[in-house]
Specification:
With about 300 residues, this protein is of the alpha/beta class. The chain is built from ten helices and eleven strands. The protein binds 5,10-Methenyltetrahydrofolate. Keywords: Amino-acid biosynthesis, Histidine biosynthesis, Hydrolase, Methionine biosynthesis, Multifunctional enzyme, NADP, One-carbon metabolism, Oxidoreductase, Purine biosynthesis.
């Protein structure tokens, strides 16, 4: 079997189109423009590229985009004051503090200082708790984008076996909650899981989010299963230069799977599209307006 390639880039463009339509309507009917603020601490070149592309797409869907760059050595108090300023700014509906933060800053403290209603990453403990109890929340972007692609491909996910590889707070745990919410039987596997290949072989849905390049191999995959590859790893090419690969070994997995997301062009673009969708959702909620359909979990 050769897997259907789930085109995250095209799907993300469609989602951004829907967001743009709603933003235009918000402006026209209510005179409201959603605003997204991104806070970047330090000079990490990869982060700068990523923040720049987020800013560009934010503007493309008609939203206000604000970037705050802070020095690598910024104090925790200064960063908390910046978050507070954005919490208090009525033109800002979404706040994203780019992670990871330098080691001297307590990222849990910083994330939990964001107004939960503006927490478009869905990382605040209040949103984590709301998601875990099935209440309306802000849902983390990468799991939300992955869920949208899974629903689109399968229709109903009810009763399917899902194995999430990775137990991070930003992907693995919220992904498992969303799959459970869609009535999957969910296993969270990780680096200490005994006989990981045989656990993964039970899965109708495999979400690879471990951060280890090309770790998941084709002979771990049940024929016809869907593979969502969350990893974005830059590796050296034998002939020199670098390329991006996922946490799944694409060629061997695609030979066995029923469907697979590529890297690049899979989960990554959906993450950014969902960030914009979350900003729109936050803006609608802040103004007591009906939120867009199909853009939330
Ligand atoms: N508070 C916070 N929230 C985040 O969501 C967050 C973060 N911090 N820190 C950094 C990571 C990284 N991240 C990516 C999202 C999309 C692509 C993406 O679209 N990648 C393209 C490839 C880009 C390329 O070619 O380099 C793709 O997969 O097709 C990449 C990386 C969000 N992050």
């Amino acid at each position: 079997m050769t897997a259907t390639v789930i085109d995250g880039k095209a799907f993300a463009a469609k989602v951004r189109g829907q967001v743009a339509e709603h933003v235009a309507k918000l402006k026209e009917e209510h005179g409201i423009t959603p605003g997204l603020a991104v806070v970047l601490v330090g000079e990490d070149p990869a982060s700068q590229v990523y923040v720049k592309s987020k800013g560009k797409m934010t503007v493309e869907v008609g939203m206000k985009s604000v970037e705050h760059r802070m020095d690598e050595n910024v104090s925790e108090a200064e960063l908390l004051a910046m978050v507070q300023k954005l919490n208090d700014d009525p033109t800002i509906h979404g706040i994203l503090v780019q992670l990871p933060l330098p080691g001297h800053l307590n990222s849990d403290l910083v994330i939990n200082s964001i107004d939960p209603a503006k927490d478009v990453d869905g990382f605040h403990i209040s949103n984590v708790g709301l998601l875990g109890t099935g209440q309306k929340s802000m849902v983390p972007c990468t799991p939300l984008g992955s869920l949208m692609m899974l629903r689109d491909h399968h229709g109903s996910l009810s009763g399917l076996n899902a194995v999430v590889i990775g137990r991070s707070n930003i992907v693995g745990k919220p992904m498992a909650q969303l799959l459970l919410g869609d009535s999957c039987t969910v296993t969270i596997a990780h680096s200490r899981t005994k006989d990981l290949p045989s656990v993964v072989r039970q899965a109708d849905i495999v979400v690879a989010a471990v951060g280890r390049p090309q770790m998941v191999l084709g002979d771990w995959i049940k024929p016809g299963a869907t593979v969502i590859d969350v990893g974005i790893n830059r590796i050296d090419k034998p002939e020199g230069g670098t390329r991006l690969v996922g946490d799944a070994d694409y060629d061997s997995c695609a030979a066995v799977a029923g469907a697979i997301t590529p890297v690049p062009g899979g989960v990554g673009p959906m993450t950014i599209a969902c960030l914009l969708a979350n900003t729109l959702t936050a803006c609608c909620r802040a103004n007591g307006l009906t939120e867009p359909e199909g853009l939330t979990a």
